[in-house]
Amino acid sequence: MVRLKRSDGLRPSLQKKETKKSQLRFYGDEFVFNTVSGLFYRISPTTAFLLRMLEDGVETADLPGLLQSRYKLSAASASHDVALFLNDLTALQLLSPARLQSTRRPS
Amino acid sequence: MTSVALTGLHRGENPQPGAAVAASLRRRFPNLRIIGLCYDPLESALYSNDGSRPDAAYLIPYPGVGPRAVLERLDEILKREKLDFIIPCLDSEIGNFIELEPELRTRGISCMLPSKDALEARSKVKLPEFCRKLEILTPRTAVVADASTLALRAQEIGYPVYVKGRFYEAHLATSPQELWEAYNKIVSVWGGPVLVQETVVGEEYDIVGLGDGKGGLIGSCSIRKMLRTSAGKGFAGIVVDDPALNDLVRRVIAALRWAGPFELEFIKVPNRPHALFEMNPRFPAWVDFPSQIDCNLPVRLLEGLLHHKPEPLRHSTPGQMFIRHSIDLVADIGDVARFVTTGQRIEDLGRSADSAPLESELAT
User: Fold this and answer.
1) Residue B194 resides in a domain
2) Which CATH number do you get for residue B354?
3) Do B201 and A11 touch (CB under 8 A)?
4) Nearest CB to A38 within list B202, B240, B270
5) Per-residue confidence in pLDDT tens, chain A, 107 aa
6) What pLDDT, in 10s, does the model give residues B73-82?
7) Per-chain mean pLDDT for chain A
8) How far is B94 from chain A (nearest CA, A)?
């Protein structure tokens, strides 16, 4: 399961910009700080892995494959987990819906 | 010895900025003589044991009595105390000091203050109009002078609403009954008119900065409020670096050609740009936080007044944060008694050679 959880228990502030390399600062694999919004999140190592991939410029459509090979998941589980992860990012406005649509491969 | 007079020295439930400004100044100028101009003998910095404690303090009349009474009291203080600079730290006194600036200059006292027009344009009453001109979002706000109009406007905006005083105090009202109570509370203390404002839920961002009076920004530090008190005051904050927010700050300061310290307060609702809901014409109570991370704005202000070559201000790094920590100060009722009965309190903390102990003054 790759879910983001606000660490300070407050309602998340959403932001318009897409995730950019300079905006996220990782503290190990379980904590990330957004330097623009000032919000921080307790995350799972899997989330950290996916966020780092996005930071490195990986397309969202390629994430299931990367997740599958990294964690030896079935294709269905990887796709499901990535879908939930992207939904979370979109809800938190860490990823714009436009980018999500434009980079998702047709199934 | 250079001396700076400060106001707003109480760091209580709703902390005032003066003590933080004093502490910031002493980080760079440890031997600076700091004079407290106080409204109450129980202003907490008078009893502190750190850099926020003034070397001397004098009671002054409340700002509401007007500039002349303030000047008269300052003239009395000047008979005993040299004042080179005044940094007013409370919203309600800025207007008086703007009025008094020419008179103060003739007495050798310098300030860095906004123009009267700029002060007025950012007032709570005028802020919606100012934001509309600059195309900056702001919560819907109405200015009302009586309770029945207040009820109408609250109905139009939709409950819950905030009822705010012209300078201080805000109460959340979820019903006409609470609206009425809030109105009475504020009017009885601060007078009218009051403001009724839509409730906006989101993350709050605060910016402390210094304007050069020509439309430029000398320096600033932006934070997200991490913890808020029941009154909405930031009790913890974390530095952010948001280009959109920085751009808004520059636009506001340029439009006002703001001179001196300021605090801008924004709220950000999901999916919308930042909305400006307040601009305060002074340093905020958390100003000593950036001072501790090489963005000492009070020092930069003083360097400007002294015409010194300024120390470079560092851009605060996102992720640096502060948490306010309340402590108990020990004092003696004798300290309070002396201040109440004489209207002044002179300390010799080893910083000043020319400040005679109060006892010797009383004996003569």
Assistant:
1) yes
2) 3.40.50.20
3) yes
4) B240
5) 455 555 553 333 333 334 444 689 999 999 999 999 999 999 999 999 999 999 888 999 999 999 999 999 999 999 999 999 999 888 876 766 555 554 444 33
6) 999 999 999 9
7) 77
8) 32
Length of chain A: 107
Residues of chain B where predicted confidence (pLDDT) is lower than 50? 349-364
Cα–Cα dist B214/B308, whole Å: 19
Count up the domains in chain B and report the number: 3
- Cβ-Cβ contacts under 8 Å for A69 (sequence gap 6 or more): none
pTM, to two decimals: 0.86
Of all residues in chain A, the one with the smallest CA distance to B241 is A36
Structural domain includes residue B175? yes
Among B198, B219, B243, the domain boundary falls at B198
B309 and B241 in one domain?
Answer: yes
What pLDDT sits at residue A96? 60
Nearest CA in chain B to A37: B240
Cross-chain CB nearest to A14 (options B226, B238, B270) = B270
Q: Which domain holds residue B338?
A: 3-111+332-363
> Taking a C-beta distance cutoff of 8 angstroms, is the pair B264, B138 a contact?
no
Q: Are residues B243 and B301 in the same domain?
A: yes
A25/B201 Cβ within 8 A: no
Q: Please report residues of A whose CB lies closer than 8 A to that of B268.
A: 13, 15
Distances (CA, A) of B211 to B86, B88, B161, B178, B251: 17, 15, 32, 39, 12
Q: DSSP secondary-structure letter at B61?
A: -
Domain CATH for B153: 3.30.1490.20
Tell if the CB–CB gap between B240 and A8 is shorter than 8 Å.
no
- Rounded-to-integer distance, Cα B266 and Cα B28, Å: 30
pLDDT in the model for residue B309: 86
ipTM for the whole complex: 0.82
Among B90, B9, B14, B88, CA closest to B50? B9
Q: Which of B170, B206, B204 is nearest to B283 (CA)?
A: B206
Cβ distance of A36 and B226 shorter than 8 Å: no
Q: Which residues in chain A are closer than 8 Å to B226, comparing Cβ atoms?
A: 8, 10, 38
Whether A37 sits inside 8 A of B201 (CB atoms) is no
Tell the burial category of B226 from Cβ atoms under 10 Å away from its Cβ (0-12, 13-18, 19+).
Answer: buried
> Looking at the structure, do residues B85 and B169 belong to the same domain, yes or no?
no
Q: Which of residues 23-42 of A touch B (CB under 8 A)?
A: 25, 33, 35-40
Residues B319 and B231 in one domain: yes
